[in-house]
Amino acid sequence: MIRKLLVAYDASPQSEKAFDFAVGIAAKYGAVLIVCSVATLPEPPVSVEVSAVLDHAEEFYTKHFTKLATRAAAEGITPRFELKVGHPAEQIILLAEEEKVQMIAMGHRGNTLVEKWMLGSVCRRVINYANCTVSVVR
Amino acid sequence: MAETWFLATVWIGLALLATLLSIWFRIATALSEIVVGTVAQMVLGAVLGASLGAGDSWIKFLSGTGAILLTFLAGAELDPTIFRQKWKEATALGLLSFLAPFFGCAAAAHWLLGWNATASWLAGVALSTTSVAVVYAVMLEFGLNKTEFGKTLLAACFVTDLGTVVALGLIFAPFTLRTLIFAGVGTAVFLVLPWITIRFFGKYGGRPSELEAKYLLLLLFGLGGLAAWAESEAVLPAYLIGMVLAGTVGKDHALIRRLRTLTFGLLTPFYFIRAGSLVSVPALGAAPMIFVVLLLVKMVAKFIAVYPATRFFESPRQEGMYSTMLMSTGLTFGSIAAIFGLNKGIIDEGQYSYLVAAVIASAVVPTLIANKFFLPRHLLRSGAGRTIVIPPQQPVQTPGGTP
Fold it and tell me: Would an 8 Å CB–CB cutoff place A49 in contact with chain B?
């Protein structure tokens, strides 16, 4: 039985698919749906650039969240939207633990070699460290 | 004129390349621009025997304007409400965090590295800074920006940077009548500025003619010119103007974003690429331990000053060490101080290179150590970030069917 689930969303086509999948699950089980996006800051954070990145992230995701809310409303679901700051995998896992969700749904980005070398796949980290079911939508 | 346009094309091309690298490697654009500037100058010099033209007057102007606007925007990020609440603690902590590395690094440069007195003072100034951005980013990640300690620490970072900017503006200026005129005019302007600005913007602002940007540039150039005339540094009034206008201009998000577009899109690439292009890689390679010594002294000095203060505020040991490491970071103001020293002939190309390398390392190394050994993981669970409330939406109507 799934009472609460979390979908990781970064506005990529894969995360859009994951969102639709999560809405379907939430509608089927009458579950609470949390949408989590993460604003990643550049390293090292530099004066003014940090504020610019955060402002951009908030505007960008608010626009996308509004569209997602409309889509979810068609299934009778009212998601909660969370914008976190930090490393995506870490923030997704921490929110899932805090909210005691039964499932995390996420898309697989198919990272470039550089991204994999620098950061590792977000998806792989979430699968490795999450304490709940993780569904990867491809 | 064609030569100028082609040179501008090269610089903007390098800025674009630096931005792409910062996106691919998820590093700060400023850092990427400094590295690209260093490598481009090295390659051009070695392969073509040419230079990037960092000494051209128009490049110096754009670069200087970039530093001024960046400093202004950094000052405008101050939260005056929090600062008013915590000014005593913030001032004490901020001053300690400035004074210890200032004297420590100056002493190390003079006694350990054998630099002359003025060059040593400049090393002290360049390495006394704390990166507000690093501290703020971590506060956000942990949700510490909502705690009393987090607010104090953040406000203290502004005091530290203010110490750096004031030291830069006053130590190397001869104390003459000009200094008094600059100080007098500056003080008068800072006192009346918030009052005038809010009324002026209220009456004439909010139009497509960008009156606000012109007004701010007038102030920044005017007081910057006055500072330079008094043989001080233009970023000093810029930072102070930013701080005194933080409660008015700083809260106008639309205006700040337009200024950021101008700053990041055109000006700061010239500033940071120029800063990088002036670095001498052969000098760095010849004595790499010099910048390591400078970095270590900065970190030790920050530890001596900040760690006891964190314990005084009853911060647990690990969190205290973490905060200390974060306050050992720095990039923007350190590089501004180093460029100032090079332009004024206070330091030579080699000393500039060591200082910039130490400043860059200080932006990275303390954070790495902090995250590896002192990360207070329990704080990660305190609900950082924010919930974005989207009002209830109407279902999407599908053609020919019910939603």
Answer: yes
